[in-house]
Every structure is written in C-alpha cells, then in structure tokens.
C-alpha cells in the first residue's frame, strides 16, 4: 500500500508519553511485582547478619531510580533493586573507625581509655587545694619544725653520745677523783682553821701555816722545785706538723686532770706561760724548743693518763697528725726548772 502524501499544513498528531511512576503516582515496581523495601527476607538478613572484624558497614541504599530515568528507560534487570555505593562510602581497606554509620553519617573515632599513670597524674596535677587542707598542712609543718629543733638541741647537748662504755666509765672516775680532791682540800682548810682557833700560840701557828702555804704557792708559781708521782709524756713529730696549739691543748688537759707541776723540755709551765709557733719548733715563754717534746708532770697517774687518752682527746688528735705519743707513769717525777718571781706593779695584798 502506497504511502499517502503528507500535507504539510496538517498538524502531526500528539504521541502519548510513556507512563512514569511520578506521573501516575505509583512507585517503581520490580519485575517480581514487589517493592525492594517490602522484601523482609533481604532486610532481616542484612540486619541480623553479624559483621566480621574489619568488615565495612554498607552504605545506605539510595532510593530506586524511576523506570524511565535509566539509560534504557525500563526496569532494573534481574527483577531486583541494585544499591550503588554512594560517593561518601569508604574504600575497602580503610579503618573501621572511619566507616560511615547508618544514614551516611561518619562515626567519630573512639577515645582510648587513659592508663593508670595518666589517671594518677591527672588526679595530682593541677592540685585541688581548699582551706581545710591548707590549715592541716600548716599545722603539720609547725609540728615537724618543732620536732626537728628538739632533736637537734638534744643531739647538741649530748657531746658524749657516741662515746664507748669504757670511756664513759673513765670520765666518771675522773669526776669522782676531782670531787675527792676538793673534799680533801676542804678538810685540810677546816683543820687549819681549827688549829688556829685552838692553839695557845696562835702567832706561831699562823707563821707555820704561812710557810707551808708559801711552799705550795711556790710550786704552783714555779719558783721552787717539786717532786712526786706523775707521768712522762713525750710527743714525737717526725713530719713537723705539731704546732703550738696542740701543746697548749695537752697542758690544759693535764691541768684539768689535777696536774700540780709541769715542765716541757726544761721550761717550767705556769699560769702565765704562753706558746707560739716558730720555724722548726715551738716557742714557750719566748724560748724555742724542738721535737721531741718531753713533758714531766706531777700528779695522780691514774687521773693524768686517762685524761690524755679520752676519745677525741689529745692522743687521738696527735695521732691523726701522724705524730707519735708515749706515756709512762712513774712514782717519782722531778720538776726542777724554775721561774723568777716577778713583783707585781699594781696588785697589792689586801691584808697590808
């Protein structure tokens, strides 16, 4: 049948457009006649299936495109709605903390739990101090300061805390001996007073006691010779380290132990004797003496020797200086070095 000639003036009849889900108000229905969201077996399987460690969470499926919007303008092949990955879906291999959550929202990385050391540091710093804590701290500080001061005073007041038992016994014996000497002196003076009061010839008794007193004072002043029990005390100084102060310490220690007469290398030592350093030796009252230094001391040997050997005393100090010390008790010590008595310029007897 031959085609009829078309009249250009005749309008072309309108072609009906294919029906779309938006046009007729019906959603796109797959080939199996059911909607994708109405298939409970797929939805339940997707929700109940556990994800393995490291498996990515699937992105939310985008809404199914209309049947006419595809390139073929028809329904999806296979009768199933395919969900294409969205542009925000992470690639396979990203960390699980970077996976997007349901609805496409990204899940924030989980904060790591703090360790015990971090919790302790956060609890201690910055310090949280209130008024009560400040008051308690102040009271504790004052209490500790008082205890420290008390302990220090106790330690300083006990100079013999570190002494040995035998040293303490020796010191007690020396104190007892000094007490005995003082008691004897007291008894002697009381006897002299009684003799003066009861003597028929008080003038003669007074002269006798005066002469006795003069001899005693002469021994102490170094104007008369003396003899009696005592010790020989010698200090050797091969290195030349013994100075005047060491000799003076020895003299003071001997006097405290009851020495009555002392001479060093032929020089009488009395109350006004002075010591000074000199080249190669020591000067005693201006007279130079050299090592070894020999002491002749009259007194009770049982008191003199322990006084020199006391811990931290003369002997230990000299031995630390690498000097040699020798002590020999004797029943007869002669002190014959004399001093000239000097007449005082200003002092006069109160009895004149």
UniProtKB/TrEMBL annotation:
Transmembrane segments: 134-151
InterPro entries with a match to the protein in the record: DUF881
Keyword Transmembrane helix: yes
Positions of region (Disordered): 1-114, 186-212
Compositional bias (Low complexity): 105-114
Compositionally biased residues, Basic and acidic residues: 1-52, 186-196
Alphabetical UniProt keywords: Membrane, Transmembrane, Transmembrane helix
Transmembrane helix listed as a keyword: yes
Family: Belongs to the UPF0749 family.
PANTHER family to which the protein is assigned, alphabetical: UPF0749 PROTEIN RV1825 (PTHR37313), UPF0749 PROTEIN YLXX (PTHR37313:SF2)
Name recorded for this polypeptide: DUF881 domain-containing protein
């Amino acid at each position: 049948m031959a085609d009829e000639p078309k009249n250009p003036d005749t309008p072309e009849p309108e072609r009906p457009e294919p029906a779309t889900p938006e046009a007729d108000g019906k959603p796109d229905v797959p080939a199996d006649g059911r909607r994708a969201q109405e298939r409970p077996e797929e939805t339940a399987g997707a929700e109940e299936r556990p994800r393995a460690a490291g498996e990515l969470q699937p992105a939310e499926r985008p809404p199914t495109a209309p049947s006419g919007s595809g390139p073929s303008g028809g329904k999806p092949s296979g009768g199933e709605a395919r969900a294409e990955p969205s542009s925000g879906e992470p690639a396979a291999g990203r960390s699980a903390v970077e996976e997007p959550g349901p609805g496409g929202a990204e899940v924030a990385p989980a904060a790591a739990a703090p360790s015990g050391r971090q919790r302790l540091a956060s609890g201690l710093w910055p310090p949280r101090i209130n008024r009560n804590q400040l008051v308690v701290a102040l009271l504790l500080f004052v209490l500790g300061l008082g205890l420290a001061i008390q302990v220090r005073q106790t330690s300083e007041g006990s100079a013999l805390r570190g002494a040995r038992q035998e040293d303490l016994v020796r010191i007690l014996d020396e104190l007892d001996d000094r007490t005995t000497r003082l008691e004897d002196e007291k008894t002697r003076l009381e006897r002299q007073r009684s003799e003066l009061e009861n003597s028929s010839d008080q003038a003669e008794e007074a002269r006798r006691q005066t002469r006795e007193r003069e001899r005693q004072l002469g021994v102490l002043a170094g104007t008369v010779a003396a003899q009696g029990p005592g010790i020989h005390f010698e200090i050797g100084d091969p290195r030349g380290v013994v100075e005047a102060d060491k000799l003076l310490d020895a003299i003071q220690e001997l006097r405290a132990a009851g020495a009555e007469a002392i001479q060093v290398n032929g020089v009488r030592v009395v109350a006004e004797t002075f010591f000074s350093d000199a080249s190669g030796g020591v000067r005693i009252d201006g007279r130079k003496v050299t090592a070894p230094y020999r002491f002749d001391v009259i007194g009770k040997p049982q008191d003199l020797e322990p006084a020199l050997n006391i811990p931290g005393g003369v002997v230990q100090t000299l031995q630390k200086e690498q000097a040699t010390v020798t002590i020999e008790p004797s029943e007869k010590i002669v002190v014959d070095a004399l001093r000239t008595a000097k007449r005082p310029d200003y002092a006069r007897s109160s009895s004149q």
